[in-house]
Amino acid sequence: MASKTPWRAIGLMAIVSLSLGTGAGAQPLTAQAQTQSPPAAPTDAERKIYDLAFQETLRKPSDPATLVGFAEIAIKVGDLEGAISALDRLLLIDGDQPEVKLELGVLYFRLGSFEAARGYLEEVRSSQRASAALKERAAAFLKEVK
Question: Could you give the residue range(s) of every CATH 1.20.58 domain in the chain?
Answer without folding.
Answer: 96-146
